[in-house]
Amino acid sequence: MSLGDDTGRTRTRLPEASGDPYGGARRNGRSSSRSLVTVVGVVVLLIAAIAFANRGGGDSDAEEGGDSPKAAATAPTGEKPVSAGASGIPAGFAHDRQGAESAAANYSVALVSADILKPDRRAEIVRQVFVADKQTSLENRFDKAYSKEFLSTIGLDENGNAAPGETYVSRTMPIGTKVIGYSDTNATVDVWCSGVFGTAGEKTTNPVTSDWFTMTLQLRWADGDWKVDSFAQKDGPAPVPGDDKASTAEEMTKAVQEYGGFTYAR
After folding, report:
1. C-alpha distances out from residue 203 to 19, 163, 179, 216, Å
2. How far apart are CA 95 and CA 182, in angstroms?
3. What 3-state DSSP class applies to 131?
4. 21, 31, 211, 249: most buried, per Cβ within 10 A?
5. Quick one: three-class SS letters along 77-110?
6. H-type helices in the chain, by residue range?
7. pTM summary value
8. Cα distance from N-terminal residue to C-terminal residue, the chain
């Protein structure tokens, strides 16, 4: 997935063979997999395009100079851990670089989730994640972007639900974070992510697949917490694909139902 252009394009991967799209097919490398991509499916690009259009230069006060690439310590730092907000998204991030990184990682998970397609949950996510002066305009734009017609193209109903017997999957896993700029009022953070996206079902033409991308979030300190002012997305960095045997639709659905997500804190 990538930001691409401002046309709101989305991408998905079609099954490589007839029958169960998960039934034992092996990946044949990045070039052959990319050739199967079409402009229908995963909604991340629409989110990124809308956010990109709303970028307001919120990092103008940020200091230059990113962190050197090194692993972050997992030992206690003395900072209190984040707590779950009203919508289940972590809140109460520390007012420092570490808090900004934690906020960016957690917000990346929320912004590229299956819940963003559900009208009720989307409104909660926008109110939890974005600064107050961007919320109304973003809610309206998201509602127009995720119309009944659009959701239908990716096999979902007007409430963002998959057809009976199918499970729509959109999960993001932050791999690492990097502070691009920081001040007491603004921060710019890159979040390197992997994710799984698509529909788990026997007859789906949009099977669950994985992708790698980087999200850049412009954060603002507002109302005692880090909030998103704007964000954008680009492809990679991506590793060489492995030769993993694809799971069946039943196995993928079971995994989504049984494995919950994480709260990312440093």
Report:
1. 8, 11, 43, 35
2. 11
3. coil
4. 21
5. CCCCCCEECCCCCEECCCCCHHHHHHHHHHHHHH
6. 30-34, 44-53, 97-111, 119-129, 132-145, 148-153, 249-258
7. 0.72
8. 27
Instruction: Find the largest Cα–Cα distance for the chain.
Output: 55
User: In angstroms, rounded to a whole number, what is the distance separating the alpha carbons of residues 194 and 43?
Assistant: 15
Is pLDDT of 103 > 60?
Answer: yes
| Rounded-to-integer distance, Cα 182 and Cα 237, Å | 23
d(CA 256, CA 37): 23
Which of 11-20, 51-60, 104-113, 231-240 has the least mean pLDDT?
Answer: 11-20
Number of Cβ within 10 Å of residue 47's Cβ equals 25
Residue 190 CA to its chain's centroid (Å): 13
| Alpha-helical regions (H) of 146-227 | 148-153
Mean pLDDT of 122-127: 92
